[in-house]
């Protein structure tokens, strides 16, 4: 065999091997590949080993933009891919300038979580899926925040996220993707607004501190007043109790003295019998004379010396009279 024929056969064999290698396509798990035959969509290759016809069948070249972070800054790289990832993907696009309803310009940074559900639509229904999704998200973000004031924007992130998911999901459904959620990462107001907000927050904290201090002082005063009131009530109750006890003691003493006096008079009456009235008059007369004698400012003069001598003599007669009855028996026993 001529040497030239061997060389030709070698080239033919090499070409056949290259064609065979070109016809073998391995698709990773959770990925698909779009195959076009002579420029038209032919089929979708599933994960695993697939055979295609070289030259006639070609994988669809899909432009794709990826986000990378370096030193806290975001930058984008545009590449061409053949395998579409069917897993949930995160698309972090640059922060956008948005104007609120009260004409305050803010910077909003959001992240979109989406998943390709229909690979053919994601390739053929939209030219560049990442760019289209970014543009749609930016437009929707401006519309949603443009209907809200700055204060509502800063405090209603969940409401913003829900509105973005609903609007973007409905618009992107025709592209064969499902928007799972949209998260607003950061909202940055202008510097002057931040300064005003800090001053407002400082004033609010000072106001709360003053209110707390005033409430504490008020509470302390209330407690002090309640303590003084309780102390006065306790003192009054103690004085009242002491007065009642003292009154009860005096009443009992008076009652006992009255009973003793009553017993004494009964004994005297039993002894004196018919002279009991004269005895009482004499006793009261002598007590009156004793009280008047103790008063230095009073000069007492009897009405008649004869009457005084007669009264003293009669009173002496009563005292010298021997008692009868129980007292007589007592005296006899003592003798």
TrEMBL record:
Q: What is its main location?
A: membrane
Give the record's membrane topology: Single-pass membrane protein
Database matches in SMART domains = PHB
Domain (Band): residue spans on this chain: 22-201
Q: Name one GO cellular component term.
A: plasma membrane
Location(s) in or outside the cell: Membrane
Q: Give the family this protein belongs to, as stated in its UniProt record.
A: Belongs to the band 7/mec-2 family.
What name does this protein carry? SPFH/Band 7/PHB domain protein
State the organism named in the record. Mangrovimicrobium sediminis
